[in-house]
Amino acid sequence: xxKYYNSQALSPESIAVLQQEYMTKVYGWMSGGMITTALVSWxxxxxxxxxxxxxxxxxxxxxxxxxxxxxxxxxxxxxxSTAKILFFVFSGxxxxxxxxxxxxxxxxxxxxxxxxxxxxxxxxxxxxxxxxKDLTGMGRFMFMGLIGIIxxxxxxxxxxxxxxxxxxxxxxxxxFSGLTAYDSQRIKEEYVLMAEGNDIAQKGAILGALSxxxxxxxxxxxxxxxxGGGRD
Length: 232
Fold this sequence. Notes:
By secondary structure, this protein is an all-alpha fold. It has one domain. Helices cover 80% and strands 0% of the residues. It has 8 helices and no strands. Helix 7 packs antiparallel against helix 8. The longest helix is centred in the N-terminal third of the chain and has 36 residues.
C-alpha cells in the first residue's frame, strides 16, 4: 500500500528527516552502481578480455550514452524495476570502458586518483546538501561549461591539441565538482515528499544516483589525466 505525505502538514524537522532518508537511498543506489563498475572492470582486466574487446571501445561508450538519454527521457513511463536494471547495465558498461582505459595508468596513480576523487566528491556533495544558498544559478553556469567541454572534446578528436586537452581537463574538474554540489542540493529539494516506496520515489532515486554517479566518474577521469602517468 502506498503511503502519501502532505508536505504542508509536516514540520521542517520531519521534512529534513524524510529528505535525509531519500538521499540515503540515492547514495545507496550510486554505491551499488560503483561496485558493479569496479567488479566488471576488474574482471575484464584480470581475465584479459578487455584486450580482446578493445576495438569496440566506442561501441560501449556510445551504448552508455544511449542508456543515459533513454533512461532520462523514458523514466516516467517505465516500471521502477526496468529503471533499476538499466542503471546496473549502464554501470556495467562503464566498467567495460574503464577496463580499456585504466591499463594505461599505474596502480598507484589509479589509487591516488580514486581517493582524491572520493574526497573532492564528498566535500562538494556535503556542501550542496547542507548549504542554505540556492545553487540554481551555479548549476546553470556549470551546465554551460559542460556543453563547452563536450564540444571542445569533439573538436579535439580531429585536431589533437594537447593544450586544448589540458584546458578541457582543468575546466572539467571545476565543472564536475560544481555539478556535484548542485545535483546534491537539487536531488534533495526535488523530493516532494508525496510518496514513500512507490514507483515515483524509486525512479527519482535512480535518476538522482545516475546524476551523482556520472559526476563522480567524470571527475575521476579528469583527475586521472592530471595525477596519472601512463605506463612505459
